[in-house]
C-alpha cells in the first residue's frame, strides 16, 4: 500500500486501506470467488442483489457464507435494474436482508445492448434513496455536469464509467474523468470498462480515489492471479499520483547533469 499510513479511502464515514472494490459475478464457483477477492485485497465487495443470493432464497447457497460481512463491507448493487421503482425496491430489499445496511451502489441502466446508465432515472432514484436514508454510491456516465449534480444531491461517491460495462476497453475519455476528479468533493471511483492492470493504474494516476471492477478479474484466464495484479496496479497508480509525475517533454533531456563535467 502507499507508504503514507494516513492515505485511506473514506466512504460514508468509514476509512478503507484498499482502493480496489470488486464484484462477485461471473466466477466459476464460490471458491474461486473467495480466492480471487482475497487475492485482490479488497475490503468493499459489491453484490448484485437481483442475481445473487444474500439470504432471500433460503434453500440456495448464500454468498455471504464465503464473504462474511464481518470481514468485508458488503455493497449491494442494483445491477439489472432499468427503472426507478425496481432500483429503489432492490435497495430496500438489501437493507432488510442485511439488517439495516444503508450503503448501496445504484445503477439504473438505459438499455440492454450498451448497459449505459439512464441518467434521468438515475438522478430520480438517487434522490429517492437519499431521502430514505441510504448512502448512495452511484454509477453514471463520464459527464462532469451529471457527476456534479449527483454529488450536490448527496451521493457519497460518484462512479463514472471508463468504458461500457464488461467491455475491457480501458479508459476511453481520460479528460472527462480528470475533469470530474478535479471538481469533486466526494470520492470518484472508475466503474466499468477496466480490462487489465494498466487500465487500473491509469485511473489511479488520474487521481481517482478508487476503481471498481468485476469482469476484468473474473473473465481472466487465471482470475486469482489477475486479482493480485489489480491489487498491485491500484497501489502503484496511487503512489505515482501522490509522487507527481515528471512533465512530459517532446525532446530528450539528459538524465545526468552536464554542468561540471571533466573533459
TrEMBL record:
Residues of the active site: 105 (schiff-base intermediate with dxp)
E.C. designation(s): 2.8.1.10
One record GO biological process: thiamine diphosphate biosynthetic process
Binding residue positions for 1-deoxy-D-xylulose 5-phosphate: 166, 192-193, 214-215
Biochemical pathway: Cofactor biosynthesis; thiamine diphosphate biosynthesis
Gene Ontology molecular-function annotations: thiazole synthase activity
GO cellular component: cytoplasm
Classification via CDD domains: ThiG
InterPro entries: Aldolase_TIM, Thiazole_synthase_ThiG, ThiG
Broad enzyme group: transferase
Subcellular location: Cytoplasm
Catalytic reaction equation(s): [ThiS sulfur-carrier protein]-C-terminal-Gly-aminoethanethioate + 2-iminoacetate + 1-deoxy-D-xylulose 5-phosphate = [ThiS sulfur-carrier protein]-C-terminal Gly-Gly + 2-[(2R,5Z)-2-carboxy-4-methylthiazol-5(2H)-ylidene]ethyl phosphate + 2 H2O + H(+)
Sorted UniProt keywords: Cytoplasm, Schiff base, Thiamine biosynthesis, Transferase
Role, per record: Catalyzes the rearrangement of 1-deoxy-D-xylulose 5-phosphate (DXP) to produce the thiazole phosphate moiety of thiamine. Sulfur is provided by the thiocarboxylate moiety of the carrier protein ThiS. In vitro, sulfur can be provided by H(2)S.
Family: Belongs to the ThiG family.
Listed name of the protein: Thiazole synthase
Species annotation: Sedimenticola thiotaurini
